[in-house]
Amino acid sequence: MNTDCLFCKILAGEIPANRVYEDEYSIAFPDINPQAPTHFLIVPKEHLASQAKALVEHEQLLGHLLVVAANLARSRKLDKGYRVVINTGEDGGQTVHHLHVHLLGGRPMHWPPG
Ligand code: 5GP
Ligand code: ZN
């Protein structure tokens, strides 16, 4: 647990979040400022500051987060598609420095992203 980290505080139950999914390695909850009709954050229980810090030892965890995203998308019937995003660092638009996967769906997405 990183005491300065918002998502560590959510994981510790210090800040409330509606856990739509939880397992040994991760939780998922709705984004407080949704950018699409469906917008979940999938957050590993281990504090890893950023995708930029990923090492070979994180392979299993990172793969797991994508499978959780796929399961959530299926459970929410995002049959027309969706987008998964990992904002990374300043240029990537990352604002919370605890790695997380955004799952966005329920509307067409644009490319290139902003
Ligand atoms: P980032 O910008 O780092 O990729 O994503 C951080 C996300 O966390 C943002 O989309 C923001 O809306 C969301 N967020 C920030 N604070 C809270 C909070 O207290 N609760 C929830 N559920 N989401 C939050
Ligand atoms: Zn954290």
Structural features, described:
This protein has 114 residues and is an alpha+beta fold. It has a single domain (6-105), classed as HIT-like (HIT family, subunit A, 2-Layer Sandwich). Helix content is 20%, strand content 20%. The chain is built from two helices and five strands. It has helices spanning 6-11, 59-75, and strands at residues 21-22, 26-30, 38-44, 82-85, 101-105. The protein has a five-stranded antiparallel β-sheet, covered by helices on one side. Strand 2 (26-30) and strand 3 (38-44) form a beta hairpin. The chain is globular and about 35 Å long. Zinc ion is lined by residues 2, 5, 7-8, 47, 98.
Summarize the structure.
The chain has 114 residues and is an alpha+beta fold. It has two helices and five strands; from the N terminus they run αβββαββ. It has one domain (6-105): 2-Layer Sandwich (HIT family, subunit A), CATH 3.30.428.
Number of beta-strand segments: 5
Uncertain ranges: none
Percent range of helical residues? 10-25%
Shape: globular
Please report the first level of CATH classification, the CATH class: Alpha Beta
What binds here, in terms of ligands, is:
guanosine-5'-monophosphate, zinc ion
Content of β-strand: 15-25%
The strand order across the widest sheet is: 1-2-3-5-4
CATH topology name: HIT family, subunit A
What number of domains? 1
What tags apply to this protein structure?
114 residues; alpha+beta; HIT family, subunit A; 5-stranded antiparallel beta sheet; 2 helices; binds guanosine-5'-monophosphate; binds zinc ion
